[in-house]
Design brief:
Layout (H helix, E strand, L loop, with lengths): L1 E7 L2 E5 L2 E6 L2 E7 L6 H9 L1
């Protein structure tokens, strides 16, 4: 499991060209999860 945090001036999520979420200035977190990851991995990542 990996996470990358990036400061952004603006970000949005689109599904089928429809905006389903957006933020102005803030933090964008990209999270990658693999089938081998376990709940304990997510717990460690969220506590750091």
């Amino acid at each position: 499991m990996r996470a990358v945090v990036q400061r952004v001036k603006r970000a949005q999520v689109e599904v089928n060209e429809d905006c389903v979420g957006s933020i102005e200035v803030g933090l964008l977190v990209y999270v990658g999860i693999h089938t081998r990851d376990e709940a304990a991995d997510a717990s460690v990542l969220s506590n750091n």
